[in-house]
Amino acid sequence: MTQQRNEVKAGLIGFGIQRSLTPAMHVREGRAHGLAYSYELIDLAERKMTADDLEALISEAEARGFSGLNITYPCKQRVLAHLTDISDDARRLGAVNTVVLRDGKRIGHNTDWSGFAEGLRLQLPDADMSRVVQIGAGGAGAATAFAVLQMGARQLTIFDIDKARSAELAADMATLFPEAEVLAGQDLGATMLSATGLVHATPMGMDRHPGLPLSAELLNPPIWVAEIVYFPLETALLQAARHRGCQVANGGGMAVFQAVGAFALFTGLAPDAERMLAHFAELTGAGGAVLAQPA
């Protein structure tokens, strides 16, 4: 199928994705560029499918003239086997969240890590990367770990309820960033005493997973706190960190800037990040600025 030059079709493949704000952000920005932009949710849960069906779903998208696909849980690693090429950073990270479909090729990229990095850079431009602690070693944790190490973290200690998973991620990142010290954490309380920053990369704090991932007593300046959760934008962790005087970065940055990166890849156009941030604020009811401002 041949698309008109001003028509862009995109979609998101994942499980349980009905609440995603990515489609709305893409469509609004596409229309601002004069594009006939459509974005579909390809929900494995709704279709009663699994990651084993990725080849069929990607082939269907190609046949329908899609420009690209975003990929989320549980497919970010599984999709690698179905691509013709992959960007250097996605190859190093071992995960893809954006696939460009063009001229019969399937090219994988990762805008998760770059989205997190940009959100953190804008919200906390002077963040001390000397000794960073991360809670969470899943798919999102791989992206955030990669991001802080790319941003120059000299030491990163990774904690997870699954100690084998945190050890595996730490080993992977140590191989990718030999100039940094990357460790699997053992004692969170003791490690936080000398930390300069905390990255939270688990679902805790979301509407359906309320609570704190660590004791609020461990949050003391000059530690900064960065979050990936954006439902709600102001999580219990960020509230506790603010209350104790820490500078914070919310999850809105990662949510918006991964979409900014994917939009550019799908269309070849430069999206207006400020406009997309403003739209995200509307969608989340944030009112003012989406990104937390340094104190």
Q: Alpha-carbon distance between the termini? A: 52 Å
State mean pLDDT (0 to 100 scale): 94
At the fourth CATH level, what is the homologous superfamily of the largest domain? NAD(P)-binding Rossmann-like Domain
Radius of gyration: 19 Å
Q: List low-confidence stretches.
A: none
By DSSP, the count of extended strands is: 12
Helix content: 25-40%
Query: How is the CATH topology of the largest domain named?
Result: Rossmann fold
Strand order of the largest sheet: 2-1-3-5-6-4
The number of domains is 2
What does this structure look like?
This protein has eleven helices and twelve strands. It has helices spanning 22-32, 44-47, 54-63, 88-93, 112-123, 139-150, 163-176, 188-192, 236-243, 252-267, 273-284, and strands at 7-14, 36-43, 68-71, 85-86, 98-102, 105-109, 131-135, 155-159, 181-184, 197-200, 224-227, 248-249. Helix 6 links the parallel strand 7 (131-135) and strand 8. The longest helix is centred in the C-terminal third of the chain and has 16 residues, at 252-267.
Brief account:
This protein has helices spanning 22-32, 44-47, 54-63, 88-93, 112-123, 139-150, 163-176, 188-192, 236-243, 252-267, 273-284; strands spanning 7-14, 36-43, 68-71, 85-86, 98-102, 105-109, 131-135, 155-159, 181-184, 197-200, 224-227, 248-249. The protein is of the alpha/beta class.
Secondary structure blueprint with pairings:
Blueprint: E1 7-14, H1 22-32, E2 36-43, H2 44-47, H3 54-63, E3 68-71, E4 85-86, H4 88-93, E5 98-102, E6 105-109, H5 112-123, E7 131-135, H6 139-150, E8 155-159, H7 163-176, E9 181-184, H8 188-192, E10 197-200, E11 224-227, H9 236-243, E12 248-249, H10 252-267, H11 273-284
Parallel strand pairs: 1-2, 1-3, 4-6, 7-8, 7-10, 8-9, 10-11, 11-12
Antiparallel strand pairs: 3-5, 5-6
